[in-house]
């Protein structure tokens, strides 16, 4: 009888041990996938050439589609990476369909997986494509809202064939090439939004004007109140005589915590 009870106790302990091991393994799997969790979706960005970052979150939260759209809007996310911006827009605009394109196949595959696990799967699509050739294909149609967190580094500190180099350096896709491509696929009442370094603002706005894209909204991004802006969010359309909406956002309080305005902007996404 004592031997039987001893075996029962051993089985109970083994069962408990196995359950603990399973929890540890599951936690390790989650952590190894490098998952960033938002309120309505999660993003695995371990394989992507462009990971989750503040620039993408700002663009996805700040950029606005033309208010006239209430149904059937088409959105294009250029250089979609892990699919973060596209999913943010799909969450904000439940009537819109979103297409993400990227030249990096592993990023596109990861974006597809992320979207399939989200509540917006039925309205999202991703494909491997270069925006320069994509914009030449008239069968793609026009888009009402185009967003891009473009490559903007001018000096390559990574090997030329490195995937992150292609995603981050402007000699793989210049501002001129990007803007020219966008004008071919943007609808007459469409909006084009980007996030770039503040030092590149003049060059980018100049290229936009050459292609009849007019600035309609602008937001300077400061890390702290006393620092100069490092990033700028820009929004363009094809309408003339725009009254430009100029804003500034400060991301951090003096103690390093998120500022109230940054928290408010991203309240639908950050946990």
Question: What are the SSEs and their pairings?
Answer:
Elements: H1 2-32, E1 35-37, E2 42-44, H2 54-62, E3 74-78, H3 84-92, E4 97-102, H4 105-116, E5 124-128, H5 131-134, E6 143-148, H6 163-168, H7 175-185, E7 186-197, H8 201-210, E8 214-222, E9 231-237, E10 245-250, H9 260-265
Parallel strand pairs: 3-4, 3-6, 4-5, 6-7, 8-10
Antiparallel strand pairs: 1-2, 7-9, 8-9
Helix pairs in contact: 2-3, 7-8
Tell me what you see in this structure:
The chain has 271 residues and is an alpha/beta fold. The chain has 2 domains: 1-32; 34-265, Rossmann fold, CATH 3.40.50. The chain is built from 9 helices and 10 strands. The strands form 2 sheets. It has an 8-stranded mixed beta sheet. It has a two-stranded antiparallel sheet with strand order 1-2. Strand 4, helix 4 and strand 5 (124-128) form a beta-alpha-beta unit. Helix 2 (54-62) packs parallel to helix 3 and helix 7 (175-185) crosses helix 8 (201-210). It starts with a helix and ends in a 6-residue tail after the last helix. The relative contact order is 0.13.
Summary?
The protein has 271 residues and is an alpha/beta fold.
pLDDT under 50 segments (min length 5)? 24-32
Measured on Cα atoms, how large is the radius of gyration?
22 Å
Helical fraction equals 25-40%
Spatial order of strands in the largest sheet = 5-4-3-6-7-9-8-10
Helix-strand pattern, N to C? HEEHEHEHEHEHHEHEEEH
User: Biggest sheet, open or closed, and with what strands and sense?
Assistant: 8 strands, mixed
CATH superfamily of the largest domain: Vaccinia Virus protein VP39
β-sheet strand percentage: 15-25%
CATH topology descriptor of the largest domain: Rossmann fold
- Our count of domains comes out at 2
CATH class category label of the largest domain: Alpha Beta
Globular, elongated, flat, extended or rod-shaped: what is the shape? Answer: globular
Termini separation: 54 Å
Helix run count: 9
The beta-strand count equals 10
**Shape-level CATH architecture of the largest domain:** 3-Layer(aba) Sandwich
Indicate the structural class.
Answer: alpha/beta
Task: Look at the structure and give the mean pLDDT.
Answer: 88
């Amino acid at each position: 009888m004592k031997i039987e009870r001893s075996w029962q106790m051993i089985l109970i302990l083994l069962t408990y041990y196995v359950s603990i091991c399973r929890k540890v393994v599951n936690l390790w799997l989650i952590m190894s996938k490098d998952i960033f969790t938002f309120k309505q979706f999660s993003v695995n960005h371990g394989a992507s050439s462009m990971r989750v970052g503040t620039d993408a979150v700002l663009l996805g939260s700040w950029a606005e589609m033309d208010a006239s759209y209430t149904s059937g809007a088409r959105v294009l996310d250029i250089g979609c990476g892990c699919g973060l911006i596209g999913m943010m827009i799909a969450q904000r605009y439940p009537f819109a369909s979103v297409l993400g394109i990227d030249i990096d196949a592993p990023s596109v595959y990861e974006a597809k997986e992320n979207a399939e696990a989200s509540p917006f799967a039925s309205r999202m699509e991703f494909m491997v494509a270069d925006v320069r050739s994509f914009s030449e294909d008239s069968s793609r149609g026009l888009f009402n809202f185009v967003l891009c967190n473009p490559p903007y580094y001018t000096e390559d500190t990574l090997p030329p064939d490195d995937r992150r180099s292609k995603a981050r350096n402007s000699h793989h896709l210049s501002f001129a090439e990007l803007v020219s491509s966008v004008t071919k696929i943007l609808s007459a009442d469409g909006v084009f939004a980007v996030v770039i370094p503040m030092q590149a603002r003049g060059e980018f706005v100049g290229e936009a004007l050459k292609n009849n894209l007019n600035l309609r909204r602008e937001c300077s991004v400061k890390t702290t109140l006393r620092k100069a802006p490092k990033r700028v969010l820009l929004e363009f359309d094809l309408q003339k005589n725009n009254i430009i909406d100029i804003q500034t956002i400060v991301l951090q309080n003096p103690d390093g915590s998120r500022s109230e305005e940054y928290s408010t902007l991203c309240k639908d996404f950050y946990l």
